[in-house]
């Protein structure tokens, strides 16, 4: 599985970068949800926050592309980080040390097995799991 990783992506979103935020409802703009919304317990465990890009068309709210958001200084900074796949084991090891694992995020038997397999077969012995 890990040998197939060529590039890993991580996104960072900063909604407010100082003062308030402005948006025109008819133009694509980014809104955030969470972590205080009523939802599945796994979202609380993940301390998740989600972003959605929307625009108004008449009386309806529609999804829009993040790429169509017009840049406004001081708000809605969306950054993309690209890591080479060769760094996957190092990143997974650091996440494991911080207890950011499949089990801590999803709290299921299958995620526990995934976490144990990662620790025993990949991180400990350096073996890559094939699909």
Describe this structure in words.
The strands form 2 sheets. The chain has a 3-stranded antiparallel beta sheet with strand order 2-3-4, with no helix packed on it. By secondary structure, the chain is of the alpha+beta class. A hairpin with a 2-residue loop joins β3 (50-57) and β4. The chain is built from 4 helices and 5 strands; from the N terminus they run ββαβββααα. It has helices at residues 41-46, 88-97, 102-106, 109-123; strands at residues 7-16, 29-33, 50-57, 60-63, 75-84.
What topology emerges from the helices and strands here?
Blueprint: E1 7-16, E2 29-33, H1 41-46, E3 50-57, E4 60-63, E5 75-84, H2 88-97, H3 102-106, H4 109-123
Antiparallel strand pairs: 1-5, 2-3, 3-4
Keywords:
131 residues, alpha+beta, three-stranded antiparallel sheet, two-stranded antiparallel sheet, 4 helices, 27% helix, 28% strand, elongated
Order of helices and strands: EEHEEEHHH
Helix content: 25-40%
Report the β-strand fraction as a percent range.
Answer: 25-35%
* Helix/strand class: alpha+beta
Adjacency order of strands in the biggest sheet: 2-3-4
What distance separates the N and C termini?
Answer: 6 Å
> Which shape, going by the Cα principal axes?
elongated
Using the CA coordinates, give the radius of gyration: 19 Å
> Which stretches are low in confidence, meaning pLDDT under 50 for 5 or more residues running?
none
Instruction: Summarize the biggest pleated sheet.
Output: 3 strands, antiparallel
Number of E strands:
5
């Amino acid at each position: 599985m890990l040998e197939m990783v060529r590039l890993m992506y991580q996104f960072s979103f900063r909604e407010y970068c100082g003062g308030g935020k402005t948006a025109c409802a008819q133009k694509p703009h980014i809104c955030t949800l969470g972590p205080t919304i009523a939802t599945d317990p796994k979202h609380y465990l993940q301390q998740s926050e989600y972003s959605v890009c929307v625009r108004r068309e008449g009386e309806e709210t529609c999804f829009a592309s993040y790429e169509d958001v017009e840049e406004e200084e001081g708000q809605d900074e969306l950054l993309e980080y690209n890591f080479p796949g060769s760094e996957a084991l190092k990143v997974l090891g650091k996440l494991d040390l911080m207890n950011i694992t499949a089990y801590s995020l999803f709290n299921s038997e299958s995620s526990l097995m995934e976490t144990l397999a990662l620790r025993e077969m990949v991180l400990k012995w350096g073996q890559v799991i094939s699909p």
